[in-house]
Specification:
Order of helices and strands: EEEEEEEEEEEEEEEE
Structural class: mainly beta
Low-confidence stretches: none
Shape: globular
Radius of gyration: 17 Å
Mean pLDDT: 91
Largest sheet: 4 strands, antiparallel
Number of helices: 0
Helix content: under 10%
């Protein structure tokens, strides 16, 4: 069986990301009463345990969202703000990756080829690919089960894609409402990959 080890302690985080080189990344958020603003930061831990700030504390979600994010092969950080995809370079420059506005941008992943994969939980649920120049391509639609049996939360607004990951060919989406992981093929076809029995349901996934 697997061995459980403590990787980090005493660090609040909204989301974790483990990259291909073994670095663990995490977000932290804090409300600043003096300015009436939220501030966010992104920390990373090297495989040998060294901890550092990738993005020091910044105020305003348009500078860094503090929740969903991904780091690409060049070290640039991508995050959502107001259903659009933003890019933040290691030098702190923030810009729109694309001018496309999603319905409900939930989770993002890098595909290893310079593109960003985006899950959109709006209405029927979709998976998009955002290219290097900002072009947006629909990979698959109708991914959400609209009336799942025995959802963990009755309100439909919680029927979301909370996790995304990939391998060499397929993209995997964790749908909390239906307690399942979908496997999406390059041609847009999809099937159930995993189903979780109650009371458990799926959030973040990594392979």
């Amino acid at each position: 069986g697997g061995k459980l080890e403590k990787r980090i302690a005493n660090h609040h985080t909204h989301e974790l990301y483990l990259d291909q080189k073994g670095f663990l990344w995490g977000t932290d958020s804090d409300y600043t009463e003096a300015t009436d603003l939220w501030r966010n930061r992104l920390w990373k831990q090297s495989p040998d345990g060294q901890l550092s700030d990738a993005i020091p504390w910044v105020e305003g979600f348009e500078q860094f969202g503090g929740s969903n994010f991904v780091v690409d092969e060049m070290g640039d950080v991508y995050f959502p703000f107001q259903n659009q995809l933003y890019k933040r370079t290691s030098g702190g420059e923030v810009s729109l990756r694309s001018d496309f506005t999603f319905g409900r941008l939930c989770t993002i992943a890098a595909d290893g080829k310079g593109n960003i994969l985006v899950s959109d939980s709006h209405e029927d649920g979709s998976l998009y690919r955002v290219g290097k120049e900002g072009a947006v391509e629909l990979i698959a639609g109708n991914l959400k089960e609209q009336n799942p049996k025995n959802p963990p939360l009755e309100e439909k607004r919680f029927n979301l894609f909370y996790g995304i990951t990939r391998n060499e060919t397929d993209v995997y989406l964790a749908n909390s409402g239906s307690r399942r992981i979908l496997s999406v093929k390059p041609d847009g076809s999809f099937s159930d990959y995993f189903f979780s029995e109650t009371p458990w349901y799926l959030l973040f996934i990594y392979f």
